[in-house]
Amino acid sequence: MMNRRESIKRLILGTLSAGLFFPSAAEAKKHRGFSISPTDPDKPIARVPYVERKWDYGRTPEEKKRDELLFTQRFFDDHELSTIEVLCDHILPASDTAESAVDAGVTEFIAFIVLDMPSLQTRLRGGIMWLDGFSKKRHGDMFARISPSKQIIVLDEIAYPDKITPATEQGGRFFREIRNLILTGYYTSEIGVKDLGFQGNTANIWDGVPPEVLAEHGVDYEPEWLAKCVNQNRRAEIAEWDSEGNLLNN
Amino acid sequence: MFIHTNPVTYDAVIVGSGAGGGMASKVLSESGLKVAVIEAGPYFDPANDAQRTQLRNPWDSPRRGAGSTRVFGDYDAAYGGWEIDGEPYTRKNGTRFDWFRSRMLGGRTNHWGRISLRFGPLDFKRKDIDGLGDNWPIGYEDVRPYYDRVDKLLGVFGSKEGIHNEPDGFFLPPPKPRLHELYYIKGARKANIPVIPSRLSVLTKRLNNDRGVCFYCSQCNRSCSVYADFSSGSCLIFPAQQSTGRIDLYTDAMVREVLTNGSGEAKGVIYINKEDRQEYQINAKVVVLAASACSSARILLNSKSGEHPQGLGNSSGLIGHYLHDSTGSSRAALVPELLNRKTYNEDGVGGMHVYTPWWLNDAKLDFPRGYHLEIWGGLGTPSYGFGFNPDSLNEHFGLEIGGYGNKLREDVKRFYGAVMGISGRGESIPQYDNYCEIDPDTVDEFGIPVLRFHYNWTDNERNQAKHMHKTFEEIFDAMGAITLGDTPSAKSEYGLAAPGQIIHEVGTTRMGNDPTTSVTNSFQQLHDAKNVFVVDAGPFVSQADKNPTWTIMALSWRTSDFIIDQLKKQNL
Lengths: 250, 572
Description:
The complex is a heterodimer of chains A (250) and B (572). Chain A has 250 residues and is mainly α.
């Protein structure tokens, strides 16, 4: 049976193929942090390593080469990745209606983004080390190894700007940074975009703010303004003007 | 040195494939001329799926669209940016000018804002009003017929408003305002500031059978795969290539210099093929530079010969001088009514649906010229950076800052689409002392001497930026919105963007009737070499508070007509 350490390593190195991440749902459940689909607890989430994914987003040959190089690299060690995953679990767990940051693949995103943006590397690695030092001092072990309730005690000391003391300043800074990355990774994932309610990025015909929204806001279109706007029923007709520039077929 | 010489002598060689070069390619080839178009970057077609970024999801990018390789993000259709590997530029005396280059077919027209404003009658003759800078040698009536043609050929939506210095054109109908724009209209009206439908070159209605109609994804900066926005490749070069068969396209080709003959006239250009790094020569009867104001200046300054020891066309010593960019400053505000708003598809076109043209031509102010206001906001696509500091705005409502867990979802959703902003874009006064020149110490990877910039803003621009912020605050206050951030002070030049940042570089080969005070004549023809023309924004004497693209194309068309006429009369 593949252990967690090995799993993460192979996830990052990309030697693990899709769907094989956990040999069984039962095994998966043992691995704290790797969530089970909320809709089907027996179905492990297939998280495909970046290197094995098909990326198709309009790259130039140079950009493609850079991506491919980054996909074969790794920065965080297993312990660091586990810690990030534990942080993901606390910072954005599943809600009643939406899956968690871990489900959304935020750990992999952060593992990649530090390769893409090397200026993040020392800050995050050092931040994790700070967190471990702080946890050892207060609770006798590294952050990922203390109990969830103790982890919460630690996080509460660094998560609120008002409660920061000279002893926790650097921890506060790390917390803000990792929280930013977790949130941005989440809300730019398919799961997060759905949770946000974003409905764009698709072909449609804009014909103004929905009437119920206008009503809710107590605003409306001025008739003179509206008279200038496009009549979407005639958008397919080729525009014709008179010699004065008056559009004849709106 | 061995130079590969193309055996064909073209009627015209056009350097650059952006707005000016695209228009010249179309007009010249359609008149029957055989044309070579030389582009420093690769071939690009937004309809090619391998290059398409339109309609990609945030998660289609491993970095979620961040700007690690493209400065405006993974999906922005500009190959290049402020810095390009192997192609440096330098700065002089601790001053700053930021130079944005897009190396690809179509150049910067693939990602530009599509804001298409005509210069008005006042804009060509501002010196008559305030005594600063210089008048253009031509006026609105000279350019107007070409604006009309550009409108009808390429399409721009807008509305007829009858404002003297904001001339109306042949408009497609504008889209309806978005929700935050309705709030802006209300606020602007209350603050006594005009607001009208915006004017963008996006097809809200069918223009012809070659191009599609906008399907409202708001991604014009990605270059439209159905050609519903104006990009030079898809809307000028491709159709002209197809209909005339007289355009030869050379891509990944960096032009180094214009070659001249013994009488000082141009006979062609030399370019470096980026793939084999060999030099090639292309001969032509006419050379048309459209490489961008600064790149064309660079080529001319690097074209030194016995007849043109200071560089081709530079007997006045003015090439590179009077370089100027638009002024710019921005501010954001939180609109309380938009908190926790209902979500729906609010993409619209790629840019604002409403804007404010300059409204104080008759006011007494402590700065000359003016600015227009651009509006932004709405329920946009999340990309890298979305969700950072999700609760930083909580303090405005006395809510807790910090924390973690599912409450963060509420923070993010509370503020999503609730922040909007206004950007001012204004006219600066061109200065002799703001310039680009050849750096004597630096070459790029092709051995071509590079540009060195010298640029300072003056109090004219600083006071204008100060006034912009006064306006932003007035409008936000009238809207009942909470203006974010402090009013910028003198120390930060009142929030004035660094020169170059607005990406409206113009003025380096300015036009005029006097060859000692200008580089080109009113047909953008070098005073010093009659078969060399500049059709980018280099010949602009000033650039109004208007975005330059529409005027670049109107003037390029006018110059192309002149070239055709002069060739017919055998004057070239």
